[in-house]
Design goal:
By secondary structure, the chain is α+β, with helices and mostly antiparallel strands. Helix content is 41%, strand content 22%. It has helices at residues 15-22, 70-80, 85-98, 102-120, 136-146, and strands spanning 28-33, 41-48, 54-64, 121-129. A two-stranded parallel ribbon has the order 1-4. A two-stranded antiparallel ribbon has the order 2-3. Helix 3 (85-98) packs antiparallel against helix 4, helix 3 packs antiparallel against helix 5 and helix 4 (102-120) packs parallel to helix 5 (136-146). The chain starts with 14 loop residues before the first helix and ends in a 9-residue tail after the last helix.
Amino acid sequence: MRLTPGIDTLFYGDNLTILRNEIEDESVDLVYLDPPFNSNANYNVLFKSPAGDNSQAQIEAFDDTWHWTDAAERAFDEVIHSGNSDAAEMLRAMRAFLKENDMMAYLAMMAVRLIELHRVLKPTGSLYLHCDPTASHYLKILLDAVFDKKGLGLA
């Protein structure tokens, strides 16, 4: 069963799975996307001792490293077969230019999610993407392809 999200709905897990299994088409007014930045770093949660001193205890919060693997190839293939011909064409062009490297793996992961976000966003909805200069220029091009440049005043 898919849901129309409300202000009291919290999902935990991979956003791609949640988007596909839980969120209705054109049901979201606002998306704030704060993905990993492709920083090639691992991020840990650090704990303090009961006295408030720094502790050696930590756990990995998330791994922000990307590599061209079978998962990246699957994400790429999903975009190619998504029905969004502009996004597929753009991702193909990026792969031809970048080859199968870490940045391309990151972009394939992002592209498949951007397509799902486009599906759930209302026509009057807004998407805010927080990113850094590492991949912002590539992400802007993907956004133009996924969200149709005509709607962005670019056509």
